[in-house]
């Protein structure tokens, strides 16, 4: 079973129901709910998503949403090694993308799913949008 790291923007697409991106995110997480794929997020994603959802709803509601969401994903911890690798690698325009990338590397993730592929242009792992991944999955059947 493929293991996918889901970038924060895809999680927010799902949980905030961002109209233009919600359908692909929902399909992706539905596949995980049906044990067709394995999804992982870094612990950083929970922190960033909580911040965004707290602005859109309330702090209490954000926590409720995240507790329900947590059953769909594995949470990858950010440890000293991951942090050091991200700090040392200036190829990623944003430090948090380096953290996501090295979380994926250290946890044997197969593919990174994001809407900002350019932020991962130096990735040694395949990087796809949710739409691209779903299309590839459909065509390989």
How would you summarize this macromolecular structure in one to three sentences?
The protein has 141 residues and is α/β, with parallel strands linked by helices. It has seven helices and five strands; from the N terminus they run βααβααβααββα.
Q: Could you please describe the fold and organization of this structure?
A:
The protein has 7 helices and 5 strands. It is α/β, with parallel strands linked by helices. It has one domain: 5'-nuclease (Rossmann fold, 3-Layer(aba) Sandwich), CATH 3.40.50.1010. It has a 5-stranded parallel sheet with strand order 3-2-1-4-5. α5 (80-88) crosses α6 (95-106). The radius of gyration is 14 Å and the shape is globular. It starts with a strand and ends with a helix. The relative contact order is 0.19. The model has no long low-confidence stretch (mean pLDDT 95).
């Amino acid at each position: 079973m493929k293991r996918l790291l889901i970038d924060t923007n895809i999680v927010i697409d799902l949980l905030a129901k961002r109209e233009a991106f919600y359908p692909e995110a929902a399909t992706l997480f539905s596949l995980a709910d049906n044990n067709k794929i394995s999804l992982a997020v870094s612990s950083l994603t929970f922190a960033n998503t909580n911040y965004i959802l707290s602005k859109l709803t309330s702090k209490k509601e954000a926590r409720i949403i995240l507790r329900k969401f947590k059953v769909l994903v594995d949470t990858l911890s950010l440890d000293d090694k991951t942090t050091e690798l991200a700090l040392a690698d200036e190829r990623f325009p944003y430090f948090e993308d380096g953290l996501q990338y090295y979380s994926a590397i250290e946890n044997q993730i197969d593919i990174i799913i994001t809407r900002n592929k350019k932020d991962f242009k130096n990735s040694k792992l395949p990087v796809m949008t949710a739409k691209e991944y779903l299309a590839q999955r459909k065509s390989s059947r």
